[in-house]
Amino acid sequence: MRLSKMHINTLREAPAEAEIPSHIWLLRSGMIRKLASGVYGFMPMGYRSVRKIEEIVRNEMDAKGALEIHMSAIQPAELWMESGRWYVMGPEMWRVKDRRGREFCLGPTHEEIFTDIVRNEVSSYRQLPLNLYQIQTKYRDEARPRFGLMRSREFVMKDAYSFDRDEAGLDKSYMDMFDAYTNIFKRCGLTFRPVEADSGAMGGSGSHEFTALSEVGESEIAYCECCDMAATTERAFTVDAEAGAEAELELETVYTPNVKTIEDVSAYLGLPKEKTIKALLMAVYEDDGTVREYVAAFVRGDRELNMTKLVNVLGVPEHMVDFADENEMHGKTGSVGGFTGPAGLKNCRIVVDSELPGLRNMCAGACKQDHHIINMNYGRDYKADIITDIKKVREGDACCKCGAPVKLARGIEVGQVFKLGTKYSKSMGACYKDENMQEHLLLMGSYGVGVTRTLAAVVEQHHDERGIIWPVSVAPYQVIVTIVKSDETEQRELAEKIYQSLLDKGIEALLDDRDERAGVKFMDADILGIPVRITVGKKAASGLVEYKLRRESEFTEKSGEEAVSAAAAFIESELRSLI
Ligand code: ATP
Ligand code: MG
I want to staple 494 with a disulfide (CB 3.0 to 4.6 A). Which of 87, 236, 540, 563 is the partner? Predict the structure, then answer.
């Protein structure tokens, strides 16, 4: 492609809203353009890279025998009511009505639709196993769309759904997808880690997230360097220390005027935070905003509450759980903002983190204005409705598998695989008949790759202060031939020749034949991140050009032919190294 004929529009500066490198560089390179908050369009270069990722995905899915189909983004509400998720999904689901008032949603995911298709199409074990996938646009009205393609409200996802006759079949389908995902993200040039994940609103029994490591990622993972434990921090749990041997001291209520936070309590009473109990006052809300029940969650003072774990314990959809209105909760349960402890509450579910019962002589709120209680001991002084792990894992906590200190890292969730089991086949009646004409529920799995988020993750891991540095596999074009002075015949002719021989070799090449200053051309090539640049300048007369990789700062001088062969060899070896 000749740049003189192609639309590119690189920006000197990124729009103010862009905070992270991938967002900045995708906008500055003109690959994407914003339409509305969390809604982006793809320009020619950007769309080429999206299609490259889609092709890698397609290729790996096909290799596992999955079949590509394409379903509508418009989904009838009835199917979601059948599965029970119409009310579970909350405001993230983009709901629409047609002119007759019939309800639909713009699909955030497609479990219901694929289950519906399969219950109609499949009747016999002979048609199994089956894995259907699509590469399709998804809609989620995210509470906080941000970081461009990372968390958008419209995005491209590859979603696949497997259907098996038994657990062994599901295990195989799941592992196939696990392998396919490993290949996909490797081929996209990502440094990533598959980690155990929470299966959240999807339901089901097992899940892994594929996390591209990055400081700006919204996922946090915990992993162990001594064993294979790796999980999202939402999911990771640790071994609680053995119960302390300390003697139980006498309970005492102390006056703590206006001393509300853990920091204040610890300073005022001269206690380490580890000796205090933190209260988190929550409520389960109905859709109309009324309170279904109050929940008081307690963790050690220096710990954080893990909302995902709490929500899972409560067994309600995530959007129904939020912090409680302290005044209202006070009236109903006897909690006192800043002074709530696990003793003295009523009409409220008390959830205590698994670590607390083993800890002796703790300090907690007294459920009385300006008072705390010290020397609280589980069993003697307070009880729980539920004792379970509800804390966030911290660096250095003991690994649940081997006891070594765990490490934390941040990353971008680029894909997730779930074992759904019979959750959807049961609620929606998706069955098959076995050899003896007996009916059984289908076992399902679901598997998602965020195609457009993967694009952003690639840029996040591959850029420098001058722009993107595409891995060859995802680059919109592989080589750019830059003519220093487009009006110099010798330069133009040699560049044309090189460009043509690149095309002849099947290499995706750009020819920068624009009537621009060389500096502008170099800057654009860097921003666009084309992996190889062949610069045709003054030495064209003697047949020499500059050959430079985007990721390196030095160029080498080569003849035109040598440069073409070097580019071809580089592309081949790069693509091979990603397999
Ligand atoms: P997140 O936790 O980041 O909200 P999710 O777990 O809800 O994501 P899934 O339902 O597992 O997402 O969707 C499959 C994949 O789709 C994710 O792994 C991610 O790559 C992508 N994805 C999900 N939400 C978005 C979004 N708002 N914008 C871009 N990609 C997304
Ligand atoms: Mg997910």
Answer: 540
Distance (Å) from CA 172 to ligand 1 centroid: 24
pLDDT on residue 236 = 86
Q: How far is the CA of 192 from the centre of ligand 2 (A)?
A: 15
User: Which residue from 31, 41, 39 is spatially nearest to 10, judged by alpha carbons?
Assistant: 31
Residues lining ligand 1, Cβ inside 6 A: 109, 140, 142, 151-152, 155, 157, 413-416, 448, 450, 452-453
CB distance 533 to 525 below 8 Å: yes
Q: Which helix (H) or strand (E) holds 73?
A: none
Domain map of the chain by residue range? Answer: 17-189+421-460, 252-388, 477-577
Q: Domain spanning 252-388: which superfamily?
A: YbaK/aminoacyl-tRNA synthetase-associated domain (3.90.960.10)
Residue 204: predicted pLDDT: 58
Task: Give me 6's structure tokens.
Answer: 């192609």
Predicted TM-score of the model (pTM):
0.88
Q: Which amino acid is at 94?
A: W
Residue type, 561: E
Strand partners, 447: 160, 417
Share of the chain above pLDDT 90, in %: 91
In CATH, what class is 477-577? alpha beta
Question: Running DSSP on this structure, what letter comes out for residue 205?
Answer: S
Query: Left if phi > 0, otherwise alpha if psi is -120 to 50, otherwise beta: which for 107?
Result: beta
DSSP 247: P
* Ranges under pLDDT 50 in the chain: 202
Class of CATH domain 17-189+421-460: alpha beta
